[in-house]
Amino acid sequence: MKSANRVTGIAALVLSLIYISAFVYYGAFWRFPIDGDAQTKMTFIAEHQTITAVFLFITYILFGLVLSILVAGTSRLLGNASEQLKSVTNAFGYLWVGLVIASGMIAIGGVSYAIGIAQTDAQKALDAWTLLMTIAQSIGGDNEIVGAVWVILVSVLALKADVLSKKLNYLGIAVGLAGVATITSVVIFKELFGVLQIIWFFWLGLCFMRLPSNEAKV
């Protein structure tokens, strides 16, 4: 049991690091020519295809795979919770996994598809890339409702089962509410969800790493 908890804890810590890497890369290194014409934009995308694909893989597909480990681990920790509520929680968790991975696959495929078209029609390629990225972001990025609901349910069930730190569980509820609010056009909620999610994942990871048996109150 302890080794399984360590794996779950490591998964949570990795998820927090993936979030941080995304903030650093897209905030400090991604310099997309927003004001450029179609040819300029497609040239930029083509020149950064490899690194873009790598980060899309890390932030979506790898994130989803690691998230599945965390979903399974939290489900095991909440063993004493209501079976019906736990089933709903798991459903949202694994749905989030599927949506994130699907989003990454669409995004990576969309980059390759658009670059192929750009050789003959830069504007058509840019339109295709914009459409596919919009679809990918809509599934797993621009709104965080599915993941937010999972975090809220995990936190509420953890409070009911009296596992994990109460402060962590209250933070989880706050994280989830910020995520639900991303359905609005207020950008701050998306940024708030991302920052709070990093803290929640990291703290949750530490709890699981220190977990000697079935309970963690760290």
Structural commentary:
It is a single chain. Helices cover 81% and strands 0% of the residues. It has helices at residues 2-29, 38-47, 49-77, 83-118, 122-140, 145-161, 166-180, 187-209. Helix 2 packs across helix 5, helix 3 (49-77) packs antiparallel against helix 4 and helix 6 packs antiparallel against helix 7. The longest helix has 36 residues, at 83-118. The protein is elongated.
Number of strands: 0
Taking the alpha carbons of the first and last residues, their distance comes to: 18 Å
**Total of helices:** 8
**Dominant shape:** elongated
| Percent of residues in beta strands | under 5%
Q: Nearest-angstrom radius of gyration? A: 19 Å
Structural class: mainly alpha
Average pLDDT, rounded to a whole number, is 88
The largest sheet, given as strand count, sense and whether it forms a barrel, is: none
Unreliable stretches (pLDDT < 50, length at least 5) are 214-218
Work out the helicity level.
over 70%
What oligomeric arrangement do these chains adopt?
Answer: single chain
- Order of SSEs, N→C? HHHHHHHH
Quick summary of this structure?
The chain is mostly helical and 218 residues long. It has eight helices and no strands. Helix content is 81%, strand content 0%.
Please outline the helices and strands:
Layout (H helix, E strand, L loop, with lengths): L1 H28 L8 H10 L1 H29 L5 H36 L3 H19 L4 H17 L4 H15 L6 H23 L9
Helix pairs in contact: 1-3, 1-8, 2-4, 2-5, 3-4, 4-5, 4-6, 6-7, 7-8
